[in-house]
Amino acid sequence: MQTFYKICLLLLIVGGVNWGLVGLFQFDLVGWLLGGSTSVWSRIVFALVGLAALGCIPNLFSEEPEEE
């Protein structure tokens, strides 16, 4: 399960960086790399980022032991 959350975190970082670039510079990095915002590949990446966000929701409510 740890690998799943690492993949989700990586996808969320990609999405966050992309949204930061869109907000600051109106530049869609994922769309630029994959042939435009409406290309099939860009839409797949956008869908995976959204699914990763949904997959990380349970992690918000899990209780982990505190590290000292």
UniProtKB/TrEMBL annotation:
The chain crosses the membrane at residues 7-34, 40-61. Signal peptide: none annotated. InterPro entries: DUF378. It comes from the Bacteria. Keywords: Membrane, Transmembrane, Transmembrane helix. This is DUF378 domain-containing protein.
